[in-house]
User: What shape does this take?
Amino acid sequence: MNKNKINKNLNNQLNLENYSSNLYLQMSAWCNIENYKNASIFFKKNSEEELKHMEKIFNFLCDINILPILNFNIYFKINFNSIQDIFKKAYINEKKITRNINYISNIAFKKRDFKTFHFLSWYILKQNEEEKILKTILDNLKFFNYNNKNFLIFDNLFLSKYI
Ligand code: OFO
Assistant: This one.
């Protein structure tokens, strides 16, 4: 019963990673069209990473003989108003991922499922790193007193550090 709860949530996490990959790919396309070239590369790279995160969970479930179930109904059309809006939405998305990872890790630890807990520890550290990067970018956007014109400078100078 409890093991099922852990596997169900791991499967949910797999779908969240898949969703993130598509979300960041869409963000990359938007940035490219709007000429924010480094931001576009940044999100493309993140999209590829999220896919790897999904595959890692997929392989873990297969290894423990659990059938991964891909959810094809989680997608919806999403609009972006500005580059700032995009980074805010990416940060909110990562916070949501972190909450879910912490939630599953907590259940796994309490249930003494140390194999799953150990597996998830990689995600805990990864989330910390990714949230930090997005928060730094958002803080810098505020500091730069963002507008479309100076974002191009920001894109060239600052974002190049993260691609
Ligand atoms: Fe995989 O969600 Fe962040 O990294």
